[in-house]
Amino acid sequence: MTFQAEWLRGTLLGLALVMAAPALADNNPDDGVVTDFLLDNGMEVVVIPDHRAPIVTHMVWYKIGSADEPPGKSGIAHFFEHLMFKATSNHAAGELDRAVAAIGGSDNAFTSYDYTAFHETVVPQALGEMMGFEADRMRNLILNDDVIKTERDVILEERRSRIDSNPQAVLDEEIDATLWQNEPYRIPVIGWMQEMEKLNRTDAMAFYNKYYTPNNAVLVVAGDVEPETVKALAEKTYGKIARGPDLPPRIRPVEPEQNTRRTVTLTDGRVSVPSFTTQWVVPSYHTAKPGEGEALDVLSEILGGGNRSRLYQELVVRQGIAAEAGAFFQGTMLDDTNFTVYGAPRGDAKLADIEAAVDAEIARIAKDGVTSDELEKSKDRFVRSMIFARDKQEDMANIYGSTLATGGNVQDVQQWPDRIRKVTADQVKEVAARYLNLDHATTGYLLPETQAGN
């Protein structure tokens, strides 16, 4: 179980294209044709047939994440992800894991800012059983104080091992808390230690009863299945659960205008190579004006999306002064999101030189734009990434689930390649000039102790 959807950062570019080209299907004309329907209780179901291998990925996405938590209850979303693996009135604790392992499958879950997801990858014959397990724990968990205390100790230890003992993770938390002045994204998904320690059964049950309902969930099934079969199984399992109360719109605090440059510095004896990250608040696909999200995606690819990007070619290949340099845009968020650039020096190079070179490339794009060759090649890389992403059922389920859980729909995914193809060089230049203003950025420095004060 993880408290962050880590695949978002590295694979988002290709995932959104996964189902865009049904012509890539090998033998079955129905491969790639997505079916989307609602159960009577309001649960949305998405089916993505892929008959190339006899496996199926089954995912349930709840439209609830850490950014929806009540004040003072940070970590409750991730905590409840853990509690969902406990006993129900029909199954003992661990029974789902044992059933999946017995047939050679895999299961897990993750929590992010905007959603919580549970997934199993199994043979198609086990799909009905998986639906039964998930439908059961959607409403029939048994939680007592002993269960709460034991699992609370688990998440506290998880925080110690994954965050508190990791200098980069500690710095990332501090950067988030500085970048976001009002938005709940400033609070870590796993929660603050002093608030996690106080989470109790009352908190957990209130959270469960409010958010874990079929009308607040999306079911995504990708793999060797037919839509008719999925619909029949879903109605037999999830369809038996009563609809929950309608939830109010997910309206969160609005981020104020940012007009200062801020820095966060952490020095630590465990750090051997200094590094920096610079971030800006930018629109996500859900909050952007038409074309802006796509332009930011293309900008991130041209600037620092891989080994053909400007930053990599200039700093790593040509000058040889950087061990790493790149950029990414995290577009699938319910609210505004962040655009990030990063770098670390190589050999005798100074961190300040890397940062200055990165800043110069950003300024160059904002002033002079990008070439038509860069633009077209970046779009081609998006399309090529689709081919590889489509080979992973979990990737297909992830992109549909994350899109639907953050205010999008199936058509948004299917139309995304055409929108990317329409991005112009002027649009890329415009978003770079509008949003990547260094006077409004937050920069984090991770330094060895010997560099403190430099």
Using brief descriptors, characterize the structure shown.
about 450 residues, alpha+beta, 16 helices, globular, disordered N terminus
Explain what you see.
42% of the residues lie in helices and 16% in strands. The protein has 454 residues and is of the alpha+beta class. Helix 1 crosses helix 13 (372-389), helix 2 (76-83) crosses helix 5 and helix 12 crosses helix 16. The protein is globular, with a radius of gyration of 23 Å. The chain starts with 6 loop residues before the first helix and ends in a 7-residue tail after the last strand. Mean pLDDT is 91; it is low at 3-27.
Give the SSE map.
Elements: H1 7-15, E1 35-38, E2 44-49, E3 56-62, H2 76-83, H3 95-102, E4 106-111, E5 116-122, H4 127-139, H5 145-164, H6 167-179, H7 193-196, H8 201-211, E6 217-223, H9 227-236, E7 262-267, E8 275-282, H10 292-304, H11 310-318, E9 322-329, E10 337-345, H12 351-368, H13 372-389, H14 393-405, H15 410-421, H16 425-435, E11 442-447
Parallel strand pairs: 2-6, 7-11
Antiparallel strand pairs: 1-2, 3-5, 3-6, 4-5, 8-10, 8-11, 9-10
